[in-house]
Amino acid sequence: MKAFYITTPIFYPNANLHMGHAYSTTIADIIARYHRIKGEEVYFLTGADENTEKVVLAAKLIGKTTTEYLDEIVSNFKNLFKKLNISYDQFIRTSDQKQHWSGAQELWNRIATVGDLEKRIYKGLYCIGHEAFITEKDLVDGKCPDHNEKPQILEEENWFFKLSKYGNVIKEKIESGELEILDNGRKTEILAFLERGLEDISFSRSVDKVSVGIPIPDDLTQKMYVWCDALSNYITALGFGTSDTNLYNKFWPANVHIIGKDILRFHALIWPAMLLSADLPLPKILLVHGFITSGGRKMSKSLGNVIDPNELINIYGAESVRYYLARHISSFEDSDLTHETFKEHYNANLANGLGNLTSRILKMSVSNSIKIEIKDKKSFQADSSLEKYDIKSYCDEIWKEIAELDKSIQKDEPFKTIKTDKKKGEDQIKILLESLFEIACKLEPIMPETSRTIQTLILENKMPEKPLFVRKE
Ligand code: MSP
Fold this sequence. Notes:
Layout: E1 3-11, H1 19-37, E2 41-48, H2 53-61, H3 66-83, E3 90-93, H4 97-113, E4 117-127, E5 132-134, E6 152-161, H5 167-176, E7 180-182, H6 184-195, E8 201-202, E9 204-206, E10 215-216, E11 219-224, H7 226-231, H8 233-236, H9 246-251, E12 256-260, H10 264-277, E13 285-289, E14 292-294, E15 297-298, H11 309-316, H12 318-328, E16 335-336, H13 339-367, H14 391-412, H15 414-420, H16 422-443, H17 448-460
Parallel strand pairs: 1-2, 1-12, 2-3, 7-13, 12-13, 14-16
Antiparallel strand pairs: 4-5, 4-6, 6-8, 9-11, 10-11, 14-15
Helix pairs in contact: 2-3, 5-6, 11-12, 12-14, 13-14, 13-16, 14-16, 15-16, 16-17
The structure holds 5'-O-[(L-methionyl)-sulphamoyl]adenosine.
């Protein structure tokens, strides 16, 4: 069986997840489900990036211990993923010493062994929001514009990773497609960045300055830089550096890392360089999505413009949220999301489009006792847009078919035909049922519950007890 390994970023648990985070996870779930349907052995990883000062600060602010706080937020993450029907195989927590730390330290040791880590004095501005150094010219009014926070001034002795050594090899791997970056715009962006040359990067923090983090092997004065720690989750989750490496042997290298555009450089430069240094294979694809914006700005807690996925789920149901993310948020560009546009698309495409079509067809088949049998579901499921990770186009194609079926009902009026020409009317309704069944199969990765409901209703020839999607005023 072909193995397929897909990952989401691991999320910072310094606040609850918003629609932007739900997007990364939902599209990963759609792709994971698609590959399972194709008969592949899928491993789907998600998790939380916990060894960060952000979390310590957030816990302090509400008077909780870091552990209490983390457990609570992580349980909120998991509840949301459950509601959204996210079919992950593992949720990794980087504070989990047993699962994560020995692998992260093993990777560190491999990088150190080849001489790619070196102690140097560093001075610079550090933004906790980004968990990265930033430069004076990035600041607006002395603050990081993305997080609206003043950076810390850091001067300390750190371990440096010789990232600069790997620029040319990474460039070759990206140009040749060995490390594929989707879409092309992001590939061009990273190649242009590589053209300017890479600088070595601080890979540890002094224990005096940070309270959480993985200890550096053989150096009690330092903890691992949170991105070095976080990126290694993709292999530690598979047991790298432990006594059980079965999953690692089966699933590494990853087929695809799903990431947002703000973390492209970490994944396209630092992560491949770490793997090259440790002599490990590179992931195959980085799928880089844009931002969900709200009022034209990135949806983010620090900007105070977040939409809580739970709120939309409570009003419209989780399947509608999955639908919206899949179809109305572009896989590659930024897309704006407001409560108004959500309602508009829900009413037009779910209550009216899919919901209405299902009731119309089933009404005809139930009242005339017309049943169909489906022998081979498989042929309905093959499609190429999802193969190319173009989820939006995949959905557009499905909704085009929905519109065509609607039109054919209007044109042929089988509900009238059946009264005058029984055989002809029955044949028309059977074709409608088969087409609707095909649509339901195609919907399986996007809206698994709705897909199952429609398939069952058709096979049992039943009307839904209540509308699939109630219109919202
Ligand atoms: N912890 C790091 C990732 C480490 S992966 C080894 C991190 N966490 S995050 O919680 O800040 O972001 C996680 C993901 O959510 C990123 O891919 C980011 O791009 C995505 N999003 C956060 N806000 C977003 C939007 N408004 N829109 C779409 N995705 C965005 O970065």
